[in-house]
Amino acid sequence: MTDAPANDAAEPTEDEVFEQKAVRLAKRERLLAERSDSAGGPYPVAVPVTTTIPELRARFGELEAGAETGETAGVAGRVVFSRNTGKLCFASLQSGDGSRIQAMVSLASVGEESLQAWKELVDLGDHVFVSGEVISSRRGELSIMVSEWTIAAKAVLPLPNLHTELSEESRVRSRFLDLIVRDRARETVLARATVNASLRRTFTERGFVEVETPMLQVQHGGASARPFTTHSNAFDTELFLRIAPELYLKRAVVGGIDRVYEINRNFRNEGADTTHSPEFAMLEAYQAYTDYNGIADLTQTLIQDAAVAVAGSTTVTWADGTEYDLGGEWDRISMYDSLSAASGRHITPETALDELRALGDEAGVDAPPQDTHGKWVEELWEHFVKGGLTRPTFVMDFPVDTSPLVREHRSIAGVVEKWDLYVRGFELATGYSELVDPVIQRHRFTEQAKLAARGDVEAMPIDEEFLRALEHGMPPTGGMGMGIDRLLMAITGLGIRETILFPLVK
Predict the structure, then answer these.
(1) Which residues make up each annotated binding site for Mg(2+)?
(2) Which domains does the chain carry?
(3) Which segments of the chain have a pLDDT < 70?
(4) Binding-site residue positions
(5) Domain Aminoacyl-transfer RNA synthetases class-II family profile spans what residues (predicted)?
């Protein structure tokens, strides 16, 4: 709060913005004309900051109304409120984290010429530097009684109305404005940084090594997805933006890095909606001498640690106020068993394709792009089971024909040791007992190549270099992948475009 109410004016029209810009540009010219050889102007190289607004609030936030400290501080911030009176001007200066302090510019402290310059030159949105005594105003607002000031950066466009919510489209397209005016936007950026730090800390505690793998690849692989393509002039060859780092991380495991992970960008040339973005941040990790059960335990720990780091508890509060419990041991259910229970039909890996099609027709489920047993089972599972999941749940044991990089189940024919983790109604992560037999892997790649030849743009090609690595011996390994953007969605309750700082927009 400042010592005066803010103005709740409507958003300026385009003509008004044009006029304001012209006025501000004239002020810029005046500042340029009046600057000295050593300082001043609308964009000085530096200003003599001695502390920050958050530091002052931490030290003096509990001052009684009217108190004086006798301490001089020099701070800088963006002007987000301004009220000019005859002999005293008020302004709220905002730091990057959203904390504010009041600047009080009085005739007695700065003199008539400086006070008039403030009134004529300072606009909402400008960055200013002020120096003076730290005090508490008569209304109890932590303030700087300004003895000197200077423009730190002149804004030539006005800020949006700070009391009117930006539309989602405006927030996404002009994230810099969103960060200025909306606390939630800044909090989300900080939450994302906290999540990444927590993930790295949990991995380090367990002996994992972080690596980086290529984003430009000579062929795409590691997931079933449509890639972006480009051309290398230097090599005169077609290249692909990676859809997953999996095949390179497994090479690292073959090479002896038994616990390895990467947090980086993936690119998939597919649709965009509330849970999908063509460019997204991905975590993948591989641990030798464990399986999909062990990697599920690790994933649960990673997510719970991240929740505690952000929210202080495994119970998180979403943007709409809903509380969601990420604590405890998470359920693990069988894909086939849960589908059978929900549909009222006994469905197994041996269930005929015609029977699955008939169930799909009866339930109004659209046929999947690839008419296979596994694709139908997954589509039917989403229809009958997915919507009923409330707690975090590992869905275990997938059809073999939809998981070409996964080891066959050790005791159940026709399925693989794979899980998908569902949180908040969407898939958050996936984990495998990794396929390490090079002969079976070659056969799976060959089957994928046949699908590609029949028009499946998501099918994987045969990766001979990866197969050569497997032929040198890869230990039993558990692996997992998790979208960082989706992890933020699970913790904050926001949509994917809110969790990505600068999402792709047309």
Answers:
(1) 420, 427
(2) 14-153 (2.40.50.140), 181-330+391-499 (3.30.930.10)
(3) 1-12, 36-39
(4) 420, 427
(5) 195-503
